[in-house]
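--- STAGE predict ---
source: upstream dedup step, 1 unique chain passed
mode: sequence only
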Amino acid sequence: MPYDFHHDHEFYLDFLARNARDSIMPFCLEGLQALDPSRKGWEGLEVLELGCGEGGNLLPFVEAGCRGTGIDLNRTKIEFGRQRMSKYTQTGQMDLRAEDIYNPDIEEEFTVRFDLIVLKDVIEHLPDQPRALRQMQKFLKNNGLLFIGWPPWTMPFGGHQQIAEGWIQKFPWIHLLPRSAYDSIIRITGQNAETRDELLSIYDCGIGIQRMHRIAKDCSMPVHREVHYLINPIYAYKFGLKTRKQWGIVRALPYVRDFLTTSVYLLLRK
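--- STAGE serialize ---
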């Protein structure tokens, strides 16, 4: 069976919110305070999350006083989130939409509006990452920040094989096989069509640290803050593991670090 937390909505939302509150928000707030030392907290900021799902990552920002907007293509998740977060969606403090960021109406409404954009475990699902970054750059205010948190492609489970059924979900680095061989294993292990499509999509879109840096540079979005994790912060809630930042000697070795870094937190500045 795939890990239960992918199917238990309440539990999944709870640990997403806890992880955002404990690790994402402090990381982002330090970045905002570096640009504006007078800022003490989150009150009054406009925050956008792309690929927000049901809104679990966005909730703590709203609770802290932000106005939160979430966008996702999955209408079912958005509807569930609206119901689950009704305390905030009904007052307008949180706005969850089943929308596409390339919709011209969305582009017009969102241009130069947000102080912070959150992209958590989403960049590795996007087929045209440079285009996505340029679009998000339009949505940021001057000196606005883009948070990207993701597992580098070559880390042990960078293929998201944990969503599959059977032994493949616990087999590290199997996603680094040639695409045809990986697809054969997906088929042989009896994965359904939806899971197969998602695994192969991640195979095609997975992104490493060096490539992320090149894209940011090409989009003229300098790196404002960066942290590499040996043990992903969210593993504390998924597996009970203690968060560990990457060893300095590993972080100093390009390409090698991608194999041993389970998560990267990055803040890019407009």
